[in-house]
Structures are given as C-alpha cells and as structure tokens.
Amino acid sequence: MFKFPDRNTFLKTAGGSLLGGIVGALLGGLAGYVAAKLQPAAAFGDLIFPLTGLVLGYGTGTGMAAYITHRMLKGRKSFARAFFSALTGLFLVVFLSEPLRLNRVQPLMWSLLFLLPPVLAALMLPLDS
User: Fold this and answer.
1) Which of 25, 81, 90, 126 is deepest in the core (most CB within 10 A)?
2) pLDDT 10s digit of each residue in the chain, 129 long?
C-alpha cells in the first residue's frame, strides 16, 4: 500500500534528487556534445544529440540521486523504484506534452519536465516505519 512520506524526508529526497538531476544533465549534455562532434555534419545534429543527452541525463541523475539520498536517510527501498519513478515522471511530460497541449506554453512544459521527476521519485520512496 502506498504511504506518503513525511515532509522532512520528502524535501531532503526531492532536493538531493534535483541536484543529482542537474549533475546528470550536465554529464549527459557533455556526452551528447561529444557524440555530435563524432558524427558527420547534419542539419540539426549539433543540437539533437546534446538535448537528448540533457533530458536523458537529467532523468537518470534524478533517479540515482533519489536512491542515494534515500539510503543516506536510512531508507530500505530499491534502486529500481527510484529510477523508474523518476523516468516515469520524465516520460509522462515528454509523451503527454502534445495531447495535453503543454508544448504551447513552453515555461509550463519545461518546469514540469524539471520538477516532476524528483517529486515522483521522492513520493515513491517513503521511509519504512
């Protein structure tokens, strides 16, 4: 059964997850930039690879940092729960942006893309009582 985490645990896990997502995005963007330079010149090749690396690196970093923060708080949930809940938040925004018309309001879409993965990862990792 799902149990909401207390406020202190939620804020610490979400904050750590957000910081880990930023580090993951930087590393993913750097990897995408290197991959773009290794490919032959294309029309948008210099833009697509770094943006893909940023988004996927952010989702991966968010999930990993949520798990690490949760373990530092003496939690016992699995890595898969943190990782897949962060990626679910990321892919919800990416795949539902057109049907929900989020792409018409870019600040809303990008803020949801930035905030939803750490919030979902923190919600799915309550400390066991």
Assistant:
1) 90
2) 567 777 888 899 999 999 999 999 999 999 999 988 888 776 666 788 899 899 889 989 999 999 999 889 888 778 898 899 999 998 898 898 889 888 888 898 889 989 999 999 988 887 764
The angle that helices 7-38 and 45-72 make with each other, rounded to 10 degrees, is 150
Q: In the chain, which residue ranges form alpha helices assigned H by DSSP?
A: 7-38, 45-72, 79-96, 106-123
Q: Do 93 and 109 touch, CB atoms closer than 8 A? A: yes
CA distance 31 to 14: 25
Tell me the residue range of the domain where 81 lies: 7-123
Closest CA to 5 of 70, 86, 90, 80: 70
